Amino acid sequence: MPKTIFLLMISIFAVVPYILAFDCATVSFQNQPQCLQIQSTVLNETVKNSILSNLDYLSKYNPDHVYVYNHNIGILVSNTPNNITKLESLFIKNAWLSNLTVMPSVLYRETLYVPDNTQLLNGYGYDIEIPGNYLSPGYPKVSDGDCRRDFSLEQNTSQNAVSVNGILQNYGKLVNLTILSNSTIKSDFSIYVAMGIDHYSWQQTECLEWDGDNCVKYLYECLFNYHETQTDSLEISDSINVSHYTNNLNAGLEQIDQYSNTSKFSLNLSNSFEAVFPNSEFKFYKYIYSIVHSKEPYYFYTLKAKDYNQSSYQNAFLSDGYLYIQDGQDASIHTFDFFSEINTTLSGNFSKINLRIETDKLKYDANETVLVRIFPSDIPVSVKYGNYTIIGKNNVSFQALPYQNRITAQYGLFSTETYVHVNDEDRLNILLNLSALGLLNYLFYGFLSKSWPGAL
Question: Using CA atoms, how far apart are residues 324 and 315, in angstroms rounded to an integer?
Answer without folding.
Answer: 9
